[in-house]
């Protein structure tokens, strides 16, 4: 990947922070650009290749220039219904930000064969009756329609974060706590550390992988791949 550039959307989120750190610590790219609502705090190795762009995703069309000149795109953008405030607002942010920025990236880099990697979730299904997996499934489907050379979807299990979220309501905290307890009962392969997800995304992007994803070629020519939680754990565990 020497000489190639990477773009990270959502670099201040739970998965995004670990991904950016992993990218910078392990090299492989000549430049790493983060695009988000605030800057990522970092003072480690290869800081000189980190470029940070703060934008307003509500006015993403005003920031088209920041999306020019990237070969690999990592997207870890996401929110919760509680954080968004309503179901409709959740969809506007979780799906709207991802798809609108993806379309701009494609428009601004017509001469590049972009590899787009997106962090989704286990159970994503555009036909689901539940909001969260349905929205993630819709995002996956629409990313396939954008026209990138290659789209890789990561579907991690329940995410073990580095720090407790402070934006959850009491009911959501109860559900999260119950889910963690259940995951521990059914086995460690049902959940995954955010750092493992970040490492898996980086390793797959740079070709440090021996796994065989569920892959197909879409009608528009896009190579569309899905990597499940089992494969994420394998990728993240490899030396």
From TrEMBL:
Q: Where does the record say this protein resides? A: Mitochondrion outer membrane
Instruction: Choose any GO biological process term that the UniProt entry carries and state it.
Output: import into nucleus
Q: What is the lineage of its organism?
A: Eukaryota, Fungi, Fungi incertae sedis, Mucoromycota, Glomeromycotina
One Gene Ontology CC term in the entry: mitochondrial outer membrane
What family is this protein classified in?
Answer: Belongs to the FMP52 family.
Organism per entry = Paraglomus brasilianum
Task: State the source organism's domain of life.
Answer: Eukaryota
User: What Pfam families does the entry give?
Assistant: NAD_binding_10
Give the membrane topology: Peripheral membrane protein
Report the transmembrane regions from the record. Answer: none
- Output this protein's name: 941_t:CDS:1
Q: Where is the NAD(P)-binding domain?
A: 10-166
């Amino acid at each position: 990947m020497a000489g190639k550039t990477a773009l990270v959307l959502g670099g201040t989120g739970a998965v995004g922070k670990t991904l950016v750190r992993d990218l910078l610590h392990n090299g492989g790219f000549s430049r790493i650009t983060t695009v988000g609502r605030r800057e990522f705090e970092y003072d480690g190795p290869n800081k000189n290749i980190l470029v940070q762009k703060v934008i307003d995703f509500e006015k993403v069309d005003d920031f088209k220039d920041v999306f020019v000149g990237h070969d690999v795109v990592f997207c870890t953008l996401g929110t919760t219904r509680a954080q968004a405030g309503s179901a409709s607002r959740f969809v506007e942010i979780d799906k709207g930000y991802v798809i609108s920025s993806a379309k701009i990236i494609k428009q601004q880099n017509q001469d590049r064969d972009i590899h787009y990697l997106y962090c989704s979730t286990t159970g994503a299904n555009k036909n689901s009756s539940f909001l969260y997996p349905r929205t993630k499934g819709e995002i996956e489907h629409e990313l396939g329609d954008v026209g990138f050379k290659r789209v890789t979807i990561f579907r991690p299990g329940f995410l073990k974060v580095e720090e407790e979220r402070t934006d959850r309501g009491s009911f959501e905290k109860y559900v999260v706590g119950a889910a963690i307890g259940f995951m521990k009962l059914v086995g460690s392969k049902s959940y995954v550390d955010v750092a493992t997800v970040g490492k898996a995304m980086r390793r797959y992007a740079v070709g440090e992988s021996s796994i065989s994803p569920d892959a197909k070629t879409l009608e528009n020519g896009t190579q569309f791949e899905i990597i499940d939680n089992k494969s994420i754990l394998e990728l993240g565990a490899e030396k």
